[in-house]
């Protein structure tokens, strides 16, 4: 009894602490600052960075934990969401119980701890998806479109997650004794989008082969020598998701046919402000009326790979499709640095349309990612989430 009381008291004081930190103002970090600061990872700079994160991360994490407590339609009470909330509370506790960072040895310990926090949160996306699915099961499908608040929350939540992971990833990566050439933390100052697109498309193809036993091919057009500063992991994720979608659409359409399977086309166009990447396929597209749905977190036409008993701690959560999260999450990654993701679908096959005044496209499903050139002045102040 006494133990239960002590536990309740502890969690009450902790929640007060979470509320106090959650009401503090978070500080944005500009990308330019990150690149300049990270290019000289001296012990002194690492110490300053750790001291900043020690104050900043609990604010950001507390805000998310509070939001997870107050979701509409009873989403907060779903077991998967409670699990995610507990991860946030555990991380908050770890950060707040870490003493003041005074020297290099403290800084190294702190770095180990935030690295572990990043790992703890690895499965947040599929676990949240499971929570949303738990809610969805209880609802009438006609209500899905009313869930604007939930979509807005998820957009904010994931955007903030991208920011937190970027801050931790950048700090941790600055300790790498042998950083890849031209890299400042997670930012590659000379990233080749063609090379990243190649790797991401191969990874997507491997999943398709694993799932279906065969896979359409892809072709990449673009200058492999063109480079610009960007976070390769972000671009990889976006292209991977888009190509995965395209492979699935084409595979499903041609699986039982004798026709020649048309390859996925990936075009990398290097503009002055943006780099545009177009992924197009001839998988049949979707009707225009379906387009608003595909950016919602509840919508997928694939069988959901998750169930109540999924062990997300150990399970391989990469599947061909089914979470309904691929497109909205990829759009957040694109927007994070000021880019965007747009889709133009042509149901059926064989029409010409003119897009962006400069592209003439012949295909059914066109997915565009615009990634901001991080060397263009207009984006130097971005990354404030
Ligand atoms: N290239 C495409 N051709 C036709 N339909 C597509 C294409 N890309 C996406 N869609 C439709 O949009 C839906 C949502 O796509 P999204 O990537 O967000 O989720 P998913 O692929 O179902 O699951 P996952 O979260 O695992 O990616 C898909 O289920 C599919 O119906
Ligand atoms: Mg997908």
UniProtKB/TrEMBL annotation:
Its main location: endoplasmic reticulum. It is an enzyme of class 2 (transferase). One of its GO terms (biological process) is regulation of glucose metabolic process. Its EC number is 2.7.11.-. Residues 235-350 form the Histidine kinase domain. PANTHER family: [PYRUVATE DEHYDROGENASE (ACETYL-TRANSFERRING)] KINASE, MITOCHONDRIAL (PTHR11947:SF3), PYRUVATE DEHYDROGENASE KINASE (PTHR11947). Belongs to the PDK/BCKDK protein kinase family. It comes from the Eukaryota. One of its GO terms (cellular component) is mitochondrial matrix. It comes from Erythroxylum novogranatense. Transmembrane segments: none annotated. This is Protein-serine/threonine kinase. It catalyses: L-seryl-[pyruvate dehydrogenase E1 alpha subunit] + ATP = O-phospho-L-seryl-[pyruvate dehydrogenase E1 alpha subunit] + ADP + H(+). Keywords: ATP-binding, Endoplasmic reticulum, Kinase, Mitochondrion, Nucleotide-binding, Transferase. It is a multi-pass membrane protein. InterPro entries: AK/P_DHK_N_sf, BCDHK/PDK_N, BCKD/PDK, HATPase_C_sf, HATPase_dom, His_kinase_dom, Sig_transdc_His_kin-like_C. One of its GO terms (molecular function) is pyruvate dehydrogenase (acetyl-transferring) kinase activity. It is found in: Endoplasmic reticulum membrane; Mitochondrion matrix.
